Amino acid sequence: MVLSRKSLTIIASLFISALSFAGIAQHEEHAASSPTQEAHAEAAHSDSHDTHAEPTDVRGKIKAHINHHVLDSHDFTLFSDEETGMHFGFPLPVILVDEGFHVFSSSKFHHGKEVAESNGKYYAINHHDGKIYRTDAQGTITNDAKGHPTNVHPLDLSITKSVLTILFTALLMFWIFTSLAKSYAKNNGIATGIGRFFEPLVVFIRDEIAIPNIGQKYHRKYMGYLLTIFFFILFLNLFGLTPLGINVTGNIAITFALAILTFLITTFTAKKDYWMHMFWMPGVPKPMRIILAPIELLGAFIKPFSLMIRLYANIFAGHIVLMSIIGLIFIFKSWIGSSLSFGLAFVLSILEILVAFLQAYIFTMLSALYFGSAVEEHHHDEAHH
């Protein structure tokens, strides 16, 4: 089976969609106590300009670490030394649209401790929501009565940790499946190398997801997207299980972009029978058609919404639960409690690997089901009775 070139187009679409929502994605930054950040704690606690302090108790540190892990970041920190305050990793490009483009390195923020200057404008990261706001030279962030910053929030198109992971995943998929396609051409349809591992998954998606839900006639039309979305979600889910602090599919902005792609493909490839059964169902009394039409239309929007929430909630909750159990190791002072926590965390990690595959399968299967309903050919024999 030779993969379609349409997969490359879909990969680019996924990247562009995710990048478009980078401005509304949450960003992670390490908290710091600094005169330039005194106003940052104001959004979380009160209207007074108190200096934000890192939690000193074990429970507080664990909670802060979990919050940092599930949020996005403008730098890629591998690990930090709490005693020296050193961060080991690398900065990422910050791209802001604020009366022109502002491009600079995230190292200017010094992990949220400093104010960054670009073309005469000053920007600071609000520790409460992780977003970048325009400030004065002192990094002052003011808040309204509800604690929301009133500073100008520029359009953020930065290459964050999540965007970098998406780019890496896209390149990885391009390399894997290009190699698989070339091996088919060179070996008379026989996969070699790493392709031998992925070929059964490709055949499974075709034979167990695409054909049963879409049909033999139209399944090839959607195979490029189904293969791309399955492996894209799977790889990101697996990367999220590493200690690198990656949580792409646990970000609702990303799952929203993926669900929108499924919605748009379903909408713009649907046949007229799809719309007829939505707005004027055959075989149903006309008064009931008027009542059911708005419900059916609402259902068309609920379907992608359920895709978005299902993937986001399962992955996000998995990260929270797993890291909370790992945190119990540092709370318990006895070897019994720590050992039990370690064992439970190990078992849950194995379960999370299953969840990574399961969520990719569910998203792909439901997308195929929606595509199948869009191209299904209906026979209206009941209209002649």
Task: Describe the structure using short key phrases.
globular, 385 residues, 54% helix, 2 domains, 10 strands, mainly alpha, disordered C terminus, three-stranded antiparallel β-sheet
Write structural notes for this entry:
The chain is mostly helical and 385 residues long. The protein folds into two domains: 26-159, no CATH class; 162-384, no CATH class. 54% of the residues lie in helices and 11% in strands. The strands form four sheets. Strands 6-5-10 form a three-stranded antiparallel beta sheet, with no helix packed on it. A three-stranded antiparallel beta sheet has the order 7-8-9, with no helix packed on it. A hairpin with a 2-residue loop joins strand 7 (116-118) and strand 8 (121-125). The radius of gyration is 25 Å and the shape is globular. Mean pLDDT is 79; it is low at 5-53 and 381-385.
Poorly predicted runs of 5 or more residues: 5-53, 381-385
Per DSSP, the total helix count is 9
**Helix-strand topology string:** HEHEEEEEEEEEHHHHHHH
Estimated structural class: mainly alpha
User: What distance lies between the first and last C-alpha atoms, to the nearest angstrom?
Assistant: 46 Å
Overall mean pLDDT stands at 79
Into which percentage range does the β-strand content fall? Answer: 5-15%
In this structure, how is the largest beta sheet organized?
3 strands, antiparallel
Spatial extent as radius of gyration: 25 Å
| Main β-sheet, spatial strand arrangement | 6-5-10
Q: Give the total of domains.
A: 2
Task: Report helical residue fraction.
Answer: 40-55%
Shape: globular
Tally of strands: 10
